[in-house]
Amino acid sequence: MRDRFIGLDVHKATIAVAIAEDGRAGEIRHYGTIQHRPEHIAKLMKRLAAKGAGLHFCYEAGPCGYGLHRQIIEAGHTCIVVAPSVLPVKPGVRIKTDRLDAMKLARLLRAGELEAIWVPDAAHEAIRDLIRTRADAVDAVKRSKQQLLSFLLRHGRSFTGRGVWTRSHFAWLAEQKFEHTAHQIVCQDYINAIHDGQQRRKQLEKLVFDQLPSWSMKPVVDALCNIRGINVVAATTILSATGDLRRFPTPTKLGSYFGLVPGEHSSGDSVHRLGITKRGNMEVRRVLTQSAWTYRFPARVTADFEKQNFDADKKVRELAWRAQVRLCGRYRKLSARGKRAQVVCMAVARELTCFIWELGQLIEPRRAEP
What we know:
Blueprint: E1 3-10, E2 14-21, E3 28-35, H1 38-48, E4 54-60, H2 67-74, E5 78-82, H3 98-111, H4 122-154, H5 167-174, H6 181-211, H7 218-224, H8 232-242, H9 251-257, E6 262-264, E7 273-276, H10 282-293, H11 303-308, H12 314-336, H13 341-362
Parallel strand pairs: 1-4, 4-5
Antiparallel strand pairs: 1-2, 2-3, 6-7
């Protein structure tokens, strides 16, 4: 029985299908274009498997999600989802069509040149979407604040207090008067947008807390909260992007997954180190950088933190304290060498991922409910 390798170029309404027959000399042809509907996909799989051939599918990750992957797996075939950013591109090619994209996927799949990304289950994907919605709410508040400050600056209004977005700052905002009614309406609308956005963010964070008890990663979330700079929302953000941390063989792989490792452009005797690769989830990288910022203070365990994590496993507590001592010292040494704060935070965040990986090897997720 010969295998068949099927490349799918997936779009909202259609899917371009290409087939690569088994063997180096096997034919690669464009099968056709089908409707992106479950019944049409099921019909395609039935036709291709009619002669008893083993089917191997692949398609690029995109806005259409993982429903197609789950349908193919449930039908008993193999399927991988690949990241578009790591697909090889020929610089001289100036023609790009759905047909050619599908044929390229089929060819690379047959050659074994495609690296599959991790596909979450439906429950995990739901938590990830909730975290992304919360991040969107945070960005909306940030954007509204910037718009309000820009509006006030255009009219020569500048707050002279110690810090913005404090009680005194909001009190100062409430005292602002404009001669033109339209300006007053604009100012108040921006203020209302900030308050509404903050309320939306709080509601979404409450929903995150409500959904955690039924999530398989809840034990790992509780363990991560013992590490300084990581709270429940940060831990959920990290694990929603990674899933089970045991799937990473080394801590370096986890750091690379987050895009926190330095790039390199070397040839012969010439070695050039670049900035971080910035691959992977940008929101997780932001969370880790914010967590790293807390290590500028000396290592210590506050009374509130001790009370909150009193029932934590001994090994987890020891790892968290070891991480705090190490990272606080690392932050202090790098700062003493004159490194910029951004560079120091990135270096600390990269080492923080090593401790997160180690903790992920100690604590196992709950078995997902079928």
